[in-house]
Amino acid sequence: MLDFWYQDAVIYELDVKVYQDGNADGIGDFRGLIRRLPHIAGLGATCLWLRPFYPSPLKDDGYDVTDYYAIDPRLGTFGDFVVFLSAARELGLRVIADLVVNHTSDEHPWFQSARQGRDSPYRDYYVWSDERPEEAPPPIFPGPEQGSWTYDKRAEAYFHHRFYRFQPDLNTANPAVREEIGKIISFWLQLGLSGFRLDAAPFLIEHLPTARPGEVTVFFNVGEQDSERPFGLLRELRTALSWRQGDAVFLAEANIAPEQYQDYFGQQGERMHMLFSFLVNQRLMLALARQEASPLAELLESMPTLPPGGQWVNFLRNHDELDLGRLSPQEREAVYDAFAPEKRMRVYNRGIRRRLASMLEGDQRRIELAHALMLSLPGTPMIRYGEEIGMGDDLSLPERISVRTPMQWSSEPNGGFSQAPPERLFRSPISSGPYGYAKLNVARQQAEPDSLLNRLMRLVRVRKSCPEMAHGRLSVLPSEHPAVLVHRCESQGGAILALHNLGDFAIQVRLAQELEPGEKLTDLLSSSGSHEETPLPIELPAYGYRWLRLVGNEWKSR
Q1: Is 263 a catalytic residue?
Q2: Distance between CA atoms of 540 and 521, rounded to whole angstroms?
Q3: Which end of the chain is more exposed for a tag (fewer CB within 10 A), N or C?
Q4: Are residues 115 and 56 both part of a single domain?
């Protein structure tokens, strides 16, 4: 029997370097993370996603890897890592980690060898050209990078990089590179990981040729074949993963068009287990910006049926920019005007480099509403560290680093993140303004019953008790108010109605059909602690929301 544990999971994303310093040297580490695991479990998370913890010069915050088989010594030892995994497991937390194999650091020994000459065994680990190609794909980071090919004097050739010039692309068309990826997967699974977030998945397959009619490919020498290059590599990655650990998972970072969803999941779910729902995220933000439900409602009604085992991962913010690239120019401007009115708040001509709380001006009602809406959608929810307390951003930091400041635990020096002197900190926490750690921290919100932290903990707890929301069938119901999204999640005979008011005014909602005798709606978020019968029509305050379970005869909407 297949184990689809991830379909009922709640994912919590964090970066070890900025979460908790355990030895007072100014940088977060695994010893510090172990200390904070009860907070994560208490929030209701069941799976940790760790950003890169491998050795790195940190030019790209760890995504420039110099050794895939080691732990950055600043973060701890293998012993610390194993103790961390054991402690997480005791609290019911699985752990997945970033697998960054579409590029390496230019300081990686493979690249340093490849530069030495064309006879290097690692030369073909990378993508080279004697002449700068006239037609080159654009860089992922326009502005910081002007192109995707850079000349290396030592190698006497141009190397390809879709990201920064210090991150040369790996050549996945080379069987030796694919075999190396299989070894990396095997190594970390053996240590106790439950899977990987596949970083930049579309660019991992970029250098693979397109299949010719009747052609098959074989990767990793595992005997599996796939005639759909380049996406066949995704199936071979999945095979390599599953042969080594049957319940391990792949979560792909793939901000792709809807017509490509099947390419990544596979027709029978034989490729990626999960994809981030980037399009839902962008439409949700547009709906919040306009205070209109239609941008999200229209998308939800058109989402495809996923193959067996396939799952969306829903989120509000991650560690990158809020990418708006799949919105129209007019829609993008609407989100910019609402959430990033100043140029310094934007980045890469497509996104916003702010956290959710600052985009919503610190209004707890709106922050709660956004989380409630995200949690109510079918799929696996992902919460990024700091979002549970409404952390802000530091726009004085470059590019995406603005949203990667240390976790704020208390009003103690350095926000409780580290006991090191401020000048020795890897990165400083936010120390002033409404989002400074003196005012905004975990300890303070733990003591306030109606704090964002405690309200979100309750939302997560209720959501985990509702399988209809995790993997039910969603249908959008008619609403006479443009600001109100009403949707139904149904699974195995159970049904939940979710109502969310995106407007800044109170609304009285009448459902499409009144209840019949013997039927009632019970409030899953009742403050009394019991599920009380809900009267009709339903009152929703400004930015209000209700989750209601249908009890009694089967209820049908018009």
Answers
A1: no
A2: 15
A3: N
A4: no
